[in-house]
Amino acid sequence: MTFLDAGTMGLELLGYVCEATRLLLIDAVDVGKPAGTLVRMNGDELRGQPCGGSVHQLAVADLITTLPLVSDPPPQVVLLGVQTASTQWGTVLSGPVEAALESLVEAVIEELSIS
After folding, report:
1. Residue 65, C-beta contacts closer than 8 angstroms, at least 6 positions apart
2. Cβ partners under 8 Å of residue 51, min gap 6
3. 81-101, pLDDT tens digit by residue?
4. Which of 14, 29, 47, 65 could be 81's S-S partner, Cβ–Cβ 3.0 to 4.6 Å?
């Protein structure tokens, strides 16, 4: 298991994840849900979202679209995220997002425990 703070690396991540069997992305999301909503999407669901469901623009969408081209088989992809209240730059979490963090951590632990 490898943990990596990828920030907005996008396609630069291919070298790190192309040989993975599973890929768990943890990110802020903007999928039109109420702020603080915990969101879980698999790779197929992500491919159907504008920008891959991530607030990091095309970074996630490009990555999940490219993985099948460079990985055989491509990794199973899951994104766990929290719907943002705003996509404006800032250094403080909104109340709903902050309140959702414990649930997000629990969801990440549960996802990591899947064999």
Report:
1. 47
2. 57, 58, 60, 61
3. 999 998 888 889 999 999 999
4. 29
Report yes or no: 31 and 49 within 8 Å, Cβ to Cβ: yes
Neighbours of 38 (CB within 10 A): 16
SS3 track for the chain: CCCCCCCCCHHHHHHHHCCCCEEEEEEEECCCCCCCCEEEEEHHHHHCCHHHHECCCHHHHHHHHHHHHHCCCCCEEEEEEEECCCCCCCCCCCHHHHHHHHHHHHHHHHHHCCC
Structure tokens given for 68: 């099948």
Backbone φ, ψ for residue 50 (5° rounding): -60, 135
The domain made up of 10-112 is a member of CATH 3.30.390.50: no
The answer to whether 18 touches 71, Cβ cutoff 8 Å, is yes
Q: Give pTM, 2 decimals.
A: 0.83
